[in-house]
Design brief:
about 130 residues; alpha+beta; five-stranded mixed sheet; 5 strands
């Protein structure tokens, strides 16, 4: 098994008027959105070949993305070959708290004055 970084995106604005929720609530929110397919699997990369700039680019034009989630987990070849299995594995990792929110980044959308977010979930130390 190797570690991969999955990148999910959504055009939806994810924050409430009071801002983005934190802690375990953000794990539940992202897990729910993945299970409901409200986050689209846009990319996945072997983590050693991955760059954070990949995710940042989704928040810039010509994209209309407002919310990006990275989930870093181990995958085997059976999972990599099946899009639904990737969703299921990421949902499981979030739901069972195998991952933690390692980084969050917010930028203000100049057109709407609403925040755009990147949330980066990494594997928890064993």
């Amino acid at each position: 098994m190797y570690t991969y970084t999955m990148t999910f995106v959504s055009a939806e604005f994810i924050a409430s008027d009071s801002g983005l929720i934190h802690g375990a609530d953000v794990l539940r929110l992202v897990a729910q959105k993945i299970s409901q397919r409200k986050l689209e699997l846009a990319d996945y990369n072997w983590t050693k070949e991955y760059s954070y700039d990949n995710s940042m680019s989704y928040l810039q034009e010509p994209y209309t993305i407002n919310f990006v989630v990275e989930v870093r987990v181990t995958l085997d070849m059976q999972i990599i070959l099946n899009r639904e299995a990737i969703y299921k594995r990421c949902f499981e990792a979030l739901n069972q708290q195998e991952v933690f929110l390692a980084k969050s980044h917010c930028i203000e959308d100049v057109n709407t004055n609403k925040p755009k977010y990147i949330l980066c979930f990494d594997k928890s130390a064993a």
